[in-house]
Amino acid sequence: MTRHSSLHLANLDLNLLVALRELLRERNVTRAAARIGVTQPAASAALARLRRHFGDDLLIRGKNGYVLSPLAMQLADQVETVCAAAERLFATDSRFDPATSRRQFTLLMADYTVSVLGAPLSKALARQAPRVETHIRLVREAFTTEAAETVRFIDGVIAPPVSRFEVPGLRSVDLFTDRWVCVLDAAHPYAIRGSLSLSDMAHMDWVAPFHPDPGSMTAAPTTRQLALFGIEPDIRVRVESYQAVPHFVAGTDRVALLQERLARRVAGPMGLAVLPCPGNPEPITEKLWWHADRDRDPAHQWLRETLVEAAATL
What we know:
Strand content: 15-25%
Number of strands: 12
CATH superfamily of the largest domain: Periplasmic binding protein-like II
Structural class: alpha/beta
CATH class of the largest domain: Alpha Beta
CATH topology of the largest domain: D-Maltodextrin-Binding Protein, domain 2
Largest sheet: 5 strands, mixed
CATH architecture of the largest domain: 3-Layer(aba) Sandwich
Distance between the termini: 44 Å
Order of helices and strands: HHHHEEHEHEHHEEEHHEHEEHEEH
Helix content: 40-55%
Strand order of the largest sheet: 4-3-5-12-6
């Protein structure tokens, strides 16, 4: 940090960070004031100072209350990350007792990972650390491209190994494995036949999670797998969620690649068939990624061990 930036930080009222977070969360001055524990005029004054600082209204009055300005939407994720990092910094101790700690942990993962790991992790946390606060942030494609940098400011990212994580200072540990399968409506002729070929897949309509815009340098796991098969999918539905995929396959002639652990959970209730994926697809390995700065933090060591133990129950 340069001397100029240090002086700039010293001149800031860092209490405004908390006010900014709650104002953007609540989009209501009165409710934000209650969460911060200040009066409504004090919260209004904080909003006025933030507006002057950013040169932006941040909260814009709409028909049904306040909405976030475009700048405020950009700031919303950033202020969550910064506040979580600050809380973690001041909660750092040479000792950690999960039974009594009020430490906050922030993890970034896909909704697929939540569906697989969420329940055993939740049970472990409730049993071992009932007062610990856990903030689960869901992956969005725009956020995923910055995951390797984001992991510096949160406790961890759960994701498969990809090139964006090949940077100095990142650590990882395997959590669980999975494999790609094809999901179809149970009444589809290929589902009734019980098999699917790469040639069949190349001529079908697709539902694709996190499929990038044309010209994007990023590639979602399913997009990468189809590229390895040499398939240019005819995508009819793009979704920013793995759990949304089955809803747009059911009752149609569409097909999708999905992780087997998720596919098996939803197939029966949604009337879907799960077929083996042809073409020898790559295995899926979900890892916990964290920055080396956390290595000696006893609270983070406990978190890593708890995640590994929860994954081992799958």
